């Protein structure tokens, strides 16, 4: 984890995304009042959490297991003058009942993090904490085509074998008792501008600093391989926002 944080140090996001896509997904559902509650699961450094605060009047609870990310969110929420509406909570998405009552939230939000618990399991377990007629919004790595080249298929089968197509995920959403409001794929620029390009810059620096350390170089090579896979096969997979209603 020390190497992970060193590689990801001070990059804008911990996964593909952009503020425009966050707002686009948020615009698909109801306007929120100061009496409403939002839970952001796996908030990371919270750039999208701040965007939620800027575009609603709701109270937001931001959950993550890492102090490093929660510290960053608190810092930037003050800079953006939204700290009064964001409460950070250190905790696990696997144990929501430790921190929250059932049917507490008008909206549960999770950008690029539901893969940790699994798409279907997350939809099933998190539903218990959404108010009747409330919403769940997640972004998830998704296959965009069926005829996958063996190289990219093998890569993601080893990294994230649970990745599914849009149609398969929509079936899961229906199976778990949600109504599908909308879905859309985020643009390729969302992978590069705020994630892979800053990440590649960090790798370049760290390769020079640790050029004699094989362990470090192996970790950096693995991260570079992921970036190169997307550069080569971006037509075949992407992050898809799924907007659903309980």
Can you tag this structure with a few keywords?
Rossmann fold, 246 residues, alpha/beta, single chain, 8-stranded mixed beta sheet
Give a quick summary of the entry.
The protein is 42% helix and 22% strand.
Q: Please provide the ordered H/E string of secondary-structure elements.
A: HHEHEHEEHEHEHEHHE
- The CATH architecture assignment of the domain at 14-144 and 160-186 and 236-245 turns out to be 3-Layer(aba) Sandwich
Which structural class best describes the helix and strand composition? alpha/beta
* Global outline: globular
CATH topology grouping of the domain at 14-144 and 160-186 and 236-245: Rossmann fold
Tell me the fraction of residues in β-strands, as a range: 15-25%
End-to-end distance: 36 Å
**Estimated helix fraction:** 40-55%
Query: How would a textbook summarize the main sheet?
Result: 8 strands, mixed
Number of separate helices: 9
CATH superfamily of the domain at 14-144 and 160-186 and 236-245: Vaccinia Virus protein VP39
Number of strands: 8
Task: Please mark out the parts with pLDDT under 50 across 5 or more consecutive residues, or reply none.
Answer: none
C-alpha Rg (nearest Å): 18 Å
